[in-house]
Amino acid sequence: MRASLIQIAVNDDKAVESVNSRRERVSSLVRAEAGVADLVVLPELWTTGAFAYELFSEEAEPLEGPTFEAMAKVARDAGVWLHAGSIPERDPEGPLYNTSLVFSPDGELAAAYRKIHRFGFDKGEAVLMGAGEELVTVRLPETVAGVTTCYDLRFPELYRGLVDRGAQTLIVSAGWPERRRSHWTLLAQARAVENQAFVLACGSAGTHAGVPQAGHSIVVDPWGAVLAEAGAGEEVLRVEFDPAKVGVTREQFPALKDRQLGLAAPTRRA
């Protein structure tokens, strides 16, 4: 299976690049992967920048808004499965959400995932956006993909839940800060090893509201080996991987079968 992770450089200064012009530029980058990739992955909140909190409400759009339309069209034009990163989604009956969109090669929406773990603690995304409540998987021709976003990467139970739903490839769309880049690489490898799955983690480049981005998108195999890694700037990271390796790995080293669930609380000793 051929995958292209497009590590977009986001400049949130509207004088440099408007959201509309960025959609056009990103569409061109995706279209260029026609015949090269089966799956294309984009970063988190690339229309605004993951840390440009003041733009979330201003640029929020309905699920089937301008970004949806542009990405559906380019998935169809390029004939690829497209994880179109995420958008600030405005739910007419609720809060904003950080919502990822996945399109099939015919331009149909295959999945939408509202980010469950919101970053910021008591500010930013954590207070500006609602939390998703559903785990999302997508059946691709050669693998079942679990869809996750950025801060989710720190919560292994989410990924275990995706594996329990059949996931063999774990996709992470992110706007990860440069100052915690070592965590990004470490956690991507950990999620791959503990779940015996491929991890395709696509980050962004540039600076979001003064926060330098880590870049270094990465693809990790079920044994934790790094198959490909990008640099810090805008880049298209291309990799070919064999989804069948997941089943082979889980059969050769059946650690998932030894999981112990529902353990009782420890007995207090007198």
UniProtKB/TrEMBL annotation:
Q: Which Gene3D superfamilies match?
A: Carbon-nitrogen hydrolase (3.60.110.10)
Q: Report the residue ranges that make up the CN hydrolase domain in this protein.
A: 1-243
What's the short name of a Pfam family annotated to this entry? Answer: CN_hydrolase
GO MF annotation list: hydrolase activity
Write down the superkingdom of origin.
Bacteria
Is Phosphoprotein there in the keyword field?
A: no
Q: Which UniProt keywords apply?
A: Hydrolase
Q: Which InterPro entries match?
A: C-N_Hydrolase, C-N_Hydrolase_sf, UPF0012_CS
Q: What does UniProt give as the signal peptide span?
A: none
Q: Note the PANTHER family from the entry.
A: DEAMINATED GLUTATHIONE AMIDASE, NITRILASE-RELATED
Family classification: Belongs to the carbon-nitrogen hydrolase superfamily. NIT1/NIT2 family.
Protein name from the UniProt record: Carbon-nitrogen family hydrolase
